[in-house]
Structure prediction request, 255 residues.
Amino acid sequence: MNAESTSTPLYGAVLLKAKEIMDFIARTETPPTLKEISLGVAISKPTVFKILQTLTYCGFVRREGSEKQYYLGTVFLEYADKAATTFDIKAVAQPYLTKLRNSTNETINLGIVEDNTITLLEKLESPTSVKLVSRVGGKMNMYSSAMGKTILASYTEEKLNDYLIKTPLRALTPNTITDQKKLRSSLKQIQQQGYAIEDAENQLDIICVGFPLIKRGKIYGAFSVSAPSYRVSQDDLQKFIQTGQATQNAILNTL
Prediction:
C-alpha cells in the first residue's frame, strides 16, 4: 500500500518506504542485496541503505553472509505468534458464513480444535431448522463430525497416531466409524477431495459437509453445512459442496 492508494493522509513517508523494502525482502525467493533491493523498490541506494540500517537496529531485518544479503528479522516470529493468539476467526468468517447460510437455507457451524475435540464457536440456524444437538460452546468428537474429520485429514501420520492413542472411537450412532483402519481410509479420501461428508455419524438423520480453514500449515478451524438427511438430495449435496468450497476460498483469502 502507498500513500496514493488511500484517501486518508498518511504520516511518515519513510515508514511507507520501510514497509516497501520489507515487502520486497519477503517476496524474493533468495535474500536480496542492497543493490537488488534498491532496484526492486525504485528507491535510491543511499536512502535504502539508511532505512536498512534503522530496520537492522530495530531487529526488523538482518544482514548476513559474504554477499551481505538481507533477511527479515526473527522479531517477526514473535509478532506472528502474538497475532495468531489474538486472531478472531469468528469475526473474519461470520459474514461469509452468513452468506452461505442464506444461500443454502441450512444450518452453518464454525468450530475450532481444543483438547482433541471440536468446540463450536458459532451456529447460524437454518430458517427451517430441525433440532440439532450442537450448541455454541459445546464440544463434539473429531472422528465423528464433519468439521473434525476434515481437520484430522490434514494431520501428519505422527499427529494422527497420537490422536488415536488418546481418543477411544465410541459409537454415537450405528453409522459412527469406530474402526481405526476404516477411519484412516476415510481420512485419506477426505484429504484428496478437500471436504468431509458426515452421514448420520454424529447424530441420527443429520448430514453435514465440513471444510477446513487451514492456511500455511496453521489450523484456524473448520465450518460445516448441516441439514436433515430427508431433505438433502444429491443435487443439494453438490450445492453444499460447491458453495462451501467457494466460502472456504473467500475466508482463506482474507487470512
About this structure: DSSP finds nine helices and eight strands in the chain. The beta strands are 61-64, 69-72, 107-114, 117-124, 139-141, 196-199, 206-215, 218-228. Residues 1-6 have pLDDT under 50 and may be disordered.
